[in-house]
UniProtKB/TrEMBL annotation:
Residues 11-159 form the Transposase IS200-like domain. GO terms for biological process: DNA transposition. GO terms for molecular function: DNA binding; transposase activity. This is REP element-mobilizing transposase RayT. It comes from Desulfonatronum thiosulfatophilum.
Length: 309
């Protein structure tokens, strides 16, 4: 069976959850490797027309949540500016190169390829080795703004808690929440949306506070996958003025955020599927499945083996 085409949208800004795993055994990404991978992600996020919404770099895989923009955002002036920032103030982009870069710098596959190839070169040189570092094609899921996004970001930030590495997600510096809390979002690396703009919250301090509350309360729930946050840790944060006003209890279903092709409202999933279904060989109808515990959020699960790449 051939590879299933990746779901991408080129006609509008789109959020993607990107996942990629190493081909090596064990946990080859140690602290220094994570620092370098994070530096590559930061540099390329400033080069490409992409907003970095969240991330988590683990010992054998990484998660990125990004918003890819369209070619309309890639003006000639902005392309030249980013080209010089990337290659030096004296670098000159030729007129015939502009359109090529316009297409490339809004391309999801090119963005991830540059990240993975750049890190592989570093890792192989550092370890004096040759060959592949990453495994199969990276996975990508299209994600809707709002409820779907904030649940996804919580899932990503809770990775080190579920793995038993830290008790509190912000104690892990190679994650979005850890970066925000520990560095104050140094260099403006992360887009300060965190899924809260849909609820008309634009105050950065309130966004972080409310998002932390959401992450802690989500992490305290038994999802049947990985470790929960310790009750005493959550209770201590509650006493610091957490306001528990969520009506719908979120039961974390990891498969929706890793094995889906699209997640969002039923209308959003239908709209996106209608725009990408021509990429599928199968003519079968897809079933839109409600995500348990999150009212109004649906998933379109891809064919077995389809997700990845």
């Amino acid at each position: 069976m051939g590879r299933i085409a990746r779901f991408v949208r080129n006609d509008s800004s789109t959020i993607y959850h990107i996942m990629s795993r190493t081909a090596l055994d064990g946990f080859p990404l140690q602290d220094i490797e994570k620092d370098h991978l994070m530096a590559i992600v930061a540099r390329l996020s400033n080069f490409y027309f992409v907003d970095l919404l969240g991330f988590c770099l683990m010992g054998n895989h990484f998660h990125l949540v990004v918003r890819m923009h369209t070619e309309e955002a890639a003006t000639d002036e902005e392309i030249g500016k980013r080209y010089r920032k990337q290659f030096g103030d004296d670098a000159v982009i030729m007129p015939h190169q502009v359109q090529e870069y316009r297409r490339r710098l809004v391309n999801l596959g090119a963005f991830v390829k540059d990240i993975k190839q750049g890190f592989t070169r570093y890792f192989n040189k550092r370890r004096n080795r040759k060959g592949f570092f990453w495994g199969d094609r990276f996975k990508s899921v299209i994600v809707q703004e709002g409820t779907s996004l904030v649940n996804l970001l919580a899932y990503v930030d809770l990775n080190p808690v579920r793995a038993g590495i830290v008790d509190k997600p912000e104690n892990y510096r190679w994650s979005g929440l850890g970066y925000l809390v520990q560095t104050g979002n140094r260099h403006g690396l992360l887009d300060m949306n965190l899924g809260m703009h849909e609820w008309n919250e634009f105050n950065p301090n309130e966004i972080i506070r409310k998002y932390r509350q959401f992450v802690y309360e989500t992490g305290a729930m038994d999802t049947g996958k990985g470790k929960q946050m310790k009750k005493e840790v959550v209770e201590k944060e509650r006493k610091k003025r957490y306001r528990l006003n969520r009506v719908d209890v979120f039961r974390h279903r990891c498969r929706y955020f890793t094995d889906s092709g699209i997640i969002g409202s039923k209308e959003f999933v239908t709209e996106v599927f209608d725009g990408v279904k021509h990429l599928l060989d199968s003519k079968d109808q897809r079933r839109f499945t409600p995500v348990g515990g999150v009212e109004g959020v649906y998933s379109m699960k891809r064919l077995p083996g389809a997700v990845g790449g």
